Amino acid sequence: MTYLSYQSTSFALIMNKPSLRNWLIDKPSASPESLIVRCLRERGVLSASQITRITGLARSTVSTALNGLRKSGMVIESSAHHDGARGIGRPAATLTLNPAAGTCVGIHLGLDEMRCVVADVSHSVITEQTIPMGLDYQPQQAAQLARSAIAQCYEENGLPMAGLLGVGVSVSGPVSREGVVQRASIVPTWAGVNIRDVFGPVLEQPIFADNESNCSAIAELMWGAAVGQDDFVLFKIDLGVGGAIVQHGRLVTGIAGGAGEFGHISIDPGGDLCRCGNRGCLELYASFARPLEQISRIVRRPVTMDEVIMMAEQGDVGALRMIEDTAEFAGRGLGLISSVINPPLIIIGGRMALAGDILLAPLIASYERHTLIKSRDIAPALRTRIIVGKHTENDALLGAVGLVLRHNSRLQ
Amino acid sequence: MTYLSYQSTSFALIMNKPSLRNWLIDKPSASPESLIVRCLRERGVLSASQITRITGLARSTVSTALNGLRKSGMVIESSAHHDGARGIGRPAATLTLNPAAGTCVGIHLGLDEMRCVVADVSHSVITEQTIPMGLDYQPQQAAQLARSAIAQCYEENGLPMAGLLGVGVSVSGPVSREGVVQRASIVPTWAGVNIRDVFGPVLEQPIFADNESNCSAIAELMWGAAVGQDDFVLFKIDLGVGGAIVQHGRLVTGIAGGAGEFGHISIDPGGDLCRCGNRGCLELYASFARPLEQISRIVRRPVTMDEVIMMAEQGDVGALRMIEDTAEFAGRGLGLISSVINPPLIIIGGRMALAGDILLAPLIASYERHTLIKSRDIAPALRTRIIVGKHTENDALLGAVGLVLRHNSRLQ
């Protein structure tokens, strides 16, 4: 429904509206103006009638509040048309927050690099930057480099720092509600680190943080395959296996931030040792790390996931077999997840999702074989749908922006 | 916090209050009286200050409404003291719905018998009846026999049928939100049957229905080990393995009623065929059906779960080994469930839970070995607690009553 576009225009006119920060971050109130602003912040672009429906306010109340918000320059008419506004007749005017009214930053802490993106409140990406870090980089160093990178981005694009509403951080490991990174063995140097304590004092901004896969789910929810879906499971197939659960439009975190850790479901307690310290984790079978090794061995050079997908599309039997075998295990894992929560929608993410039907067809067949409730036994409305995601490369980074826009996972 | 007691006194004075049925079932309103009545219906016994806290109403509003409810005879002082009311000084007066104000019926559809219980709105069980049915009994026959049994119970106890608020039905299989029994192979004769269509016209009452394990979870939530807990997982170890998930005080059902079907998580796709049609389901390893066969073979006579627990308590090595092996698989299954939803509390139910620590100690050790987030790595507040349930024998039946009292799973 909403869009996220990359734009390169420089931002000369930034209105510095301290009231926006007040409304969105510091003391959100229940006034119609505040509700409308929060609604547009979460969804990006909406028509007045959609705002009326979502907020539950009276049509006249919305109309009056929108007039005020338009006059103050907080809300503007959008050039991009909302998907839902397409139809017969004149398209309804769509509204968005004034891009000049505020910005937010998303940071993704990768294995050996840090990525950083600046977006405005109308959900447009202004600029993006990658900072190479080397393996096992230290939290303090990351915070300092993030500060410099943000300052540089804002200066180069003529953005005032005062318009920054908050910083979202995506972490490759489970994060507790208080912002502490759990499980030492997955991201060694960040184990036990409190994201707020590290980034808060250095960046001097409200800090939001969540697990990488949870951020990916936020990106799919706000701009991707899950727009309009309140309940779904994300299953990422990449060099690892990640996951997230969204229920009633909110992430399920679990008591210690361990919900959705699908890659570490142990399917063979006697199997190989996993980086998490357990044995036979699903990630060892349903990620694409081992298949890449196998294919590289056969073709006698290192291959990437993109190449393998291309080989499969051209009919290479080995590439097809590796994708099918991965799909078999992913389907088995998802069958098992379905016996636990039986979700209405499963979105396959990660870079292997780019294989499309080559991956999806055997995955769905495997899922059907291993799950309790078979599609053929039940009405279509009760079936779990399995589709591929929309964001596969930069989903965690976009999701970190989404944490700020949705005011999700704020660390107090 | 609340109690469920069995009482045998005959019920001579039943006030027929059509307004209670109105408030509770037909058109619940947001009036203070309606909120208080629903609150007492869900919790059983509460003090005025607890009612104030739970409803969020002003103290004076609660006081005025309670006066009116007392005068009309709808609410009375309770002789049983609420657990939470114990303390120094004079115990606070506790209130309950007048037992004479209404009754409800719970029915459990067992494999070869139907059990039926009548309880009043103060959460006291008035009478219970078991109807032997033989294997593969027909839905229509069950509805007719339930009607006779209910009529008999009400007549014998001098209860007016007009006071009956609704009938809750517990089914040994997944039930969709519309009340259709899913998965043919688990309860053959009930597959595809709509519980409302079968019981509604014959009983002429509002019908509530849910899966057996979901009913068990309701019983633990209302009267058992989960009182005051809004989020937990129930894992039942009996002749089968069942389960349920409660989040924010509500059951997670899944799109087709398949959430919490822990017994049918496939842990070995090449394993033995399960009654559900899949292979290597957790139920084959973590239920106590096979251990009973093994022990019966050794002692050359059929043994029951109670006997095996007694043998284990007396140090019988074979009985201990069978319980430990079951615990190992149950812990493995729960470790896996925790990698999906990471719940704060796991309650072990089913008749094997009566083994207490003999089962729990190896189960917790196995859980720790197989789950991603180890207790020793995290603060005590973030750890998943594993305890045994309070109701193990009649939990599904009590839960069926709970469906009506909580107005849960009503079939429209």
UniProtKB/TrEMBL annotation, chains A, B:
Name of the protein in its database record = HTH arsR-type domain-containing protein
Family stated for the protein in its record: Belongs to the ROK (NagC/XylR) family.
GO terms of molecular function: DNA-binding transcription factor activity
| Residue ranges that the Swiss-Prot or TrEMBL entry lists as coiled coil | none
InterPro entries tied to this protein: ATPase_NBD (IPR043129), HTH_ArsR_DNA-bd_dom (IPR001845), ROK (IPR000600), ROK_cs (IPR049874), WH-like_DNA-bd_sf (IPR036388), WH_DNA-bd_sf (IPR036390)
Q: Which domain of life is it from?
A: Bacteria
Question: Domain HTH arsR-type spans what residues?
Answer: 35-76
Q: SUPFAM superfamilies annotated for this entry? A: Actin-like ATPase domain, Winged helix' DNA-binding domain
Pfam families named among the record's database cross-references: HTH_5, ROK
